What does this fold into?
Amino acid sequence: MRRLRNVKIVATLGPASSDYETIRALFEAGADVFRLNMSHGEHSDIEERHRTIRQIEEDVGRPIGILADLQGPKLRVGTFANGAEELEIGEAFRLDLDASDGDVTRVCLPHPEIFAALEPGSSLLVNDGKIRLTVETCGKDYANCRVKVGGTISNRKGVNVPDVVLPLAALSDKDRKDLEFVCGLGVDWLALSFVQRAGDVEEARALAAGRASILSKIEKPAAVDAFDEILAVSDGIMVARGDLGVELPVQKLPPIQKRLVRKCRSVAKPVIVATQMLESMIESPVPTRAEVSDVAAAIYEGTDAVMLSAESAAGDYPVESVATMNAVAIEVESDPTYRDVIDASRGGKRETTADAIVVAAREIAETTDIKAICCYSQSGTTARLVARERPRVPIIAMTHQRRAARSLSLSWGLHCVMAGRLERFKQAVVNSARAARTDGFAEEHEQIVVIAGVPFNVPGSTNILRVAPCEERLIFSTDPE
It folds into this structure.
């Protein structure tokens, strides 16, 4: 099944999309990667959804990526004797470790790590930032605050601490158990929440032990500040605008999003733009104009993927949400301005032989009548380098590694095809020509560019480029030479 656009779509599964028929409909509507949210559902639910995706993958004959999104530490206040209280602007309010029920003057915050990091002047945000407190005095077990933005505070509402780096690991005990479980299932990507520093990513990588790629969610100001270090140790990035928009002034989000997408592109690592992309479609069959513009803006920036959360997981119109995102992507990518923006924003260092080969492939494809770039990739690195170039022609990523094919389904423009191990370059040309013809990228006598490396089946050895025809005699040749 060939997509008619390059940006990929990630669809979250949930109560509204848990059966075979709906998940397959989501795939056919345009979903390339499915997200399993570990914040919701039992392990048995996750296992069943994973099994269903793999069954659909077998039935349609196309690699499908699976991303397991770890919950991360959840910081919440305790409970109130009355269930809820109204906090007025200018009033004093205390947070402490006393486990007794709270009232209008105080409540328990059962996280000593927060008190250890607070300083006078620090901000505390409650209930997605609807309530804002400023710390006046604090100690190891309390924080006396002043209400800057008031409202209703109730049992177990979430707390954000935007001003400081918290002495908390990104992985809770639950996350470690979930990580081991989903790696055992065989997911392709792990999305890591609550990342503040590069060490958080390295801990997850050690636990994953090569069983899944690590995608860091950028949802805290500390992660934005340390982004270069986090990017260097991550396999991919998610710009998670939910918590990030709570902890930062909302006007800062657009330039941050643009900057992070550019940096990911420059190092050939996939990046997802996520959160509230088509939020109104949870309840409406059509999105707002602003939401369509938001999705379009991310696509114009050159992001690898855009993501649906509750829209596909719990909304009334899961399939329509994916179809809408697919339609927006096709329309944007057909706009001449899109290509102007993509070409103008191309960047990143080109220092290796593989870099030179993929640049040459793009330039040849764009200056002659080439129908596709076919690249053989053992680990996926070469395919991602081609995707970084954002060529004007389709990219066919050929690999004999099923895990690599599934992982590459998150990267811009890659049409992944399973192929046998190579013994000779002639095999690479024959297999590429066959894939281009079979999947509708080229006709007989039309040409493709083929990229591979010698020695074969060795990661990082890309060093050959050939312009080849898609002729019948070539495709059906039995000559091993």
Observations:
- The radius of gyration is 24 Å.
